[in-house]
Translation factor GUF1 homolog, mitochondrial
Amino acid sequence: VPISNIRNFSIIAHIDHGKSTLADKLLELTGTVQKREMKEQFLDNMDLERERGITIKLQAARMRYIMNNEPYCLNLIDTPGHVDFSYEVSRSLAACEGALLVVDASQGVEAQTLANVYLALENDLEIIPVLNKIDLPGAEPDRVAQEIEEIIGMDCSNAIRCSAKDTAKSPLRALIFDSYYDPYRGVIVYFRVVDGTIKKGEKICFMASGKEYVADEIGVLSPTQMQVSELYAGEVGYLSASIRSVADARVGDTITHASKKAECALPGYSEATPMVFCGLFPIDADQFEELREALEKLQLNDAALKFEPESSSAMGFGFRCGFLGLLHMEIVQERLEREYNLNLIITAPSVVYHVNLADGETIEMLTPKEYIGPIMELGQERRGEFKEMNFITENRASVVYELPLAEMVGDFFDQLKSRSKGYASMEYSLIGYRESNLVKLDIQINGDPVEALSTIVHRDKAYSVGRALTQKLKELIPRQMFRVPIQACIGAKVIASEALSAIRKDVLSKCYGGDISRKKKLLKKQAEGKKRMKAIGRVDVPQEAFMAVLKLE
Ligand code: GDP
Ligand code: MG
């Protein structure tokens, strides 16, 4: 919490006007003390201790509160209940910057109200008047506000009117921050209660999906799941409700009660739209069904992951998958390989194109001023349109470009870092589709078109990309027993061509005599090298070749 967001305050009041009740309420609402641990008048124990001269364990209660996405630290510093201890009161108040002046709206200003106000004024405190007990039939908040203005001379037009007892509860709102699929219990949802309470057996509603369920089980994470009967504002917990589809209870959605729905959902929900796409193909065609099952299981935990079957004559059967970004893509691939033991070839990531329209975005880069030049060159090279530049401080500039997302999915970030010696950072947002002059560049290996290697490029770059790509593929694809032509084409027209010359490869001929262990090592090494090869026609193409388009100079 930044120092500017720390508030040290106390509550001052005439006896019985509701100081302790309000303190309890604040502790409860901020989740500092959970309701089930909450004895009434939590802070009063301290009063007693102090009055008896016993050591005081807790002098201040620290509360955390989030407002407009900013964390605040609220330190409630207790003052003794009786002004007899005015020296003590004064000392506590000296530690504060502000005080809540609680006045019972059915009683009005009383002696201790005044005495406390004087002490607060002596300590230069910001005083916020609070008119309490407005729920009482005899409450006259307007009259009491006027009284405070007249007697104390304090502006009460913005006085807070409340009932510290606050009998009317706000409707439930709980934010889902994680979920996973349990084969026995269905989807397990992790959430934080922001408003209200949730009880076991209640009928709940997920606000974005509109789906309703009965919360069969709720509990806390401590850190293993432990059932409880009720969770309160500020608490983090889990629930299960025989939910079969993760899509019904997505991360970011708000849980409310089916019978008493909250008016609006908590911020945090936005539909996950995949932005980056790639093909995933099992190296061994027999693993296709396993791959499908693995993707389905992963999707249960990860609603942002999209996939649909794809087949091509060159690659066989696989899936076209959509991800939120490159990191998401890498994580999914890792999990498929590690957790599901699949051997995969992934094709270079690409973005969505709408017929003749290319995806556009605005990118903002922050850089120390000495790297502005190299960064603007990068923006220009990547078909970027310069938008604006501002100096944020004397030495740091913000540079804004609009550029095609397609130019970003590759090594843009790496380039930004290397051209600024690591000092520049970036942020981007999608701004929609833009028209662009694009062509589809196809690759043929040994006469077979390999769709997985096709890419969409700007017409001006087609020839240079075609040349660079065929050269790179020639480097990456091992030579075969026969000559292998590698061609780049636009439609039927070949625009670049390379060829791998034939070899007769006998790895073992390099071993003289009968050194068995060395032979084994060599064979093993060769087998490992083969693991990540995909047979395209008669040609074995390694994983790296499918990423070649990202690594062109
Ligand atoms: P303190 O002496 O200032 O700490 O006052 P307490 O918090 O102990 O409250 C005194 C009495 O007023 C208790 O019986 C509370 O339950 C009651 N009380 C406090 N706030 C409210 C309120 O907003 N409405 C009603 N109706 N009673 C309240
Ligand atoms: Mg009290």
Notes: DSSP finds twelve helices and 31 strands in the chain. Residues 13, 15-21, 41, 132-133, 135-136, 163-165 surround guanosine-5'-diphosphate (ligand 1) (CB under 6 Å).
